[in-house]
Every structure is written in structure tokens, then in C-alpha cells.
Amino acid sequence: MDFSVLPSGALTLKNLRTPACLLAQDGDLTSIELTIENGHITSGKGTEVDMGGAMVFPTFTDMHTHLDKGHIWGRAPNRDGTFTGALDTVAADRAANWSAEDVRRRMAFSLRCAFAHGTSAIRTHLDSLPPQDEISFPVFREMRAEWAGLIDLQAACLVAIDNVSEDGPYARTADIVAESGGVLGMVAFPVPDLRERVRAFFRMADARGLETDMHVDESVDPTVATLRVIAETKLEMGVEMPLTVGHCCSLSVQDEAEAMQTLDLLAKAGINVVSLPMCNMYLQDRHAHRTPRLRGVTLVHEMRARGINVSFASDNTRDPFYAYGDLDMIEVMRQATRIAHLDHTGTDWPHAFLTNPARACGFAAPSLAPGAPADLVICKARSWTELFARPQSDRIVLRAGQAIDRALPDYAELDDLMR
């Protein structure tokens, strides 16, 4: 239940707090007063409501998700919790079950969760090894139209790098992506002809005018270092289209000098990075009856110091790659703060959950300024320690100035798909 019921009509919400960086101010939290009228933030006045110091955010962008995989755990659990186990389990489930109707229902379930939590923009990766590309992208286009005005949606194809070539099935997948207004994606890992595969990928994206998004080095093996090759190739080719790389786990275990040189290349190439710490810590260095030592969290502090556009996102939800999660960006912010020690290291980290992902994907920039849509998440918490100590299940989510019904869909709705 929302912690407060707001009256109807024009409102002036007094005694709110928000991260100062969102207002281009110095400091941690700052007081703010917001007037809402006709679905927008205005400079006028309405019925005054004292919010008691509650924290307010613009609605969130979740820039790395897998809506097509979500919520299959009930029928396809990862028996050993390993990365290999996740790959094998998803491949078997995809071959057996991923019809258009199956993908559609699970995708809609996930979007309902994200909307209830206060997310207004999502980029999803879609498994696209043929024939799945011909199944999932049409469903995505339907979902994008159905959710227009509620959640802005983007989709990136997901195909392993050893399937990337300009004269094979991947070329047709790239055409489907272009026809869908999507993003060209792949999973990058060491292959003998890595540099040429990356060049082919960039050429295909450039020919179709596509932005790019890669899963990169999702491993805690220090010899896995495709990220450096990707950055070098982008610079050598003069590639200008936006590129986002996700995971980049192996940076955390590489030689310090080598890792810093790679980060310098990333900064020079203008590459966006998205960290997925919840999923990475679930999968990396998992061995039965052995405590994990290597956690796979990429070097976000060092990236930020170099001016690299760094974001955090949900990644997988209740599937073999991550058994938990609910597409809740406040949970992502809480967990990332704890995992990556974002506290005590500057006051601008809120950008990594709001401004940075929107910039990386080209979504509308979140704003609390007059004229912006009144799309807000308000938490009763008055400070960061109060925000992160509890799950904020009593938050208020406003869309176009109106409080939404935040009731989450019941998992039982998907029971027939789990049989």
C-alpha cells in the first residue's frame, strides 16, 4: 500500500528530498518542492501536501534486461547455479517452449512488474539464434506498441560471436533488428578470429544505421580480454555509433596495469558500460560446497574516474542466469550500492540508475524540472540509510501525475506455462 494517498487536482508537494546531482547541485540530498498539474511538473501552485522529507526520483531506466527469458525458473531451474548450467538450461527450454505466446505472456508479466516498481524505459536483449529471431522480435514489436506511453522499449539481438558473419544467418537477424528499430547485439568472448568478427559486427551495424550493445567478458578468467580488442577496433575503424558493453567481469581479476589500459581505451572510444552485479555475483566463481572468492563486479569506480558513462541494471529475472529479481530499480540501486561500495565515494552515483542509462540508450532524460512529465517515484525514506534499509514496498509511483495501482502480478498467472 502507498504510504500516502495524494488528493486529486493540482498539487504542490512540499518538503521532498532528492539527490542534489539530479538538480546539477553540489552535495548529497537537497530539499525540493514540486507542483504537479495536468500530468506535468509546473512552476505554479496547487493544493499543498507536506511529504515529510520523503525522497523523490524521476522514474527509472533499466537498460539491460532479458524479458524473453524471464520467469522460466519454475520449469527450467539451473540445477547447479553455474554459468554453463544456465546456458544449457536456457537453450533446452528455448528449443522446447519459446513459442510466440509463451514469450508474449512472460514478457507482459515482467513489464507489469517493472511498471509497478516505477520503471519507464527498458532495453531488453532477445535470444536471436534462428529461428527464435523470427519469433521473439514480432512479439517485441507488439509489446512496444501495447506499452507505448507507459514503458519505452528497445530490443537488442543476442547471438554468440562465433555466429556473427556478414554472409550467414546473422545477416538476416541484423535485418530483422533493423526492421524492428532495434539494437545490434552479440555476446563477445575469445575466438580465434575475434578481431575480424568484431569488425564484421561493426560493419553490419554501420550498414543498417544501428546502435550496438554487447555482452562482454562475463568471466572471472583473467585471460578473457575481448573488451580491449573491441575498444581498439572501434577506434581503428572510426566507429561513431553508440556502443554499450555489459558485464566486463574479467577486468576485476586482470593485472592492474592491463585493466587500467583497457579502461583508458574505453574512455577514448566513448563506450558506455553497464554493470550487472546481482547476476554476476550469482553466477561467477560458483563451485559446489566452496565459498566463492571472485565476485565478477566490474571496475565501476575506475571507469567513473575516467569519465566513462557507467550504469547499473537488473539483468535476468527468475531464470537460469539469476533465480531472483523483479525488475525493481530501487532494489538494483540498493544492492549495487552495497556490492560496489558506492556509498562514501561521491554524491553523483544516482546518475548511474537514471541519467546515465537514459543517455546510453537514447531515452528521454529524466528530469524534475518544470515542463517535465510528472513521472515520479516517491519513497517515505528521508535519507539514504532509510532508503536502503528497507525494500520501499510502500513507495508511491506517479505517472502523468496520477498514482498508479502498484499491485504486482501473481506468479500463479504463469503456472500453466510451467507445466
Structure report:
With 419 residues, the chain is of the alpha/beta class. The protein has 2 domains: 86 residues, Urease, subunit C, domain 1 (Roll), CATH 2.30.40; 302 residues, TIM Barrel (Alpha-Beta Barrel). Helices cover 34% and strands 20% of the residues. The protein has a 5-stranded parallel β-sheet, with helices on both faces. It has a 4-stranded mixed β-sheet with strand order 3-2-1-4, with no helix packed on it. Helix 5 packs across helix 6 and helix 6 packs parallel to helix 7. The chain is globular, with a radius of gyration of 21 Å. The protein starts with 10 loop residues before the first strand and ends with a helix. This is Cytosine deaminase. It holds the Pfam family Amidohydro_3. Keywords: Hydrolase, Metal-binding. GO terms for molecular function: cytosine deaminase activity; isoguanine deaminase activity; metal ion binding. It comes from Actibacterium naphthalenivorans.
User: Major sheet, described briefly?
Assistant: 5 strands, parallel
* Domain module tally: 2
Structural class: alpha/beta
As a percent range, the share of strand residues is 15-25%
Count of extended strands:
16
Provide the gyration radius in Å: 21 Å
CATH class of the largest domain: Alpha Beta
EC number: 3.5.4.1
Enzyme class: hydrolase
Protein name: Cytosine deaminase
GO molecular function, one term: metal ion binding
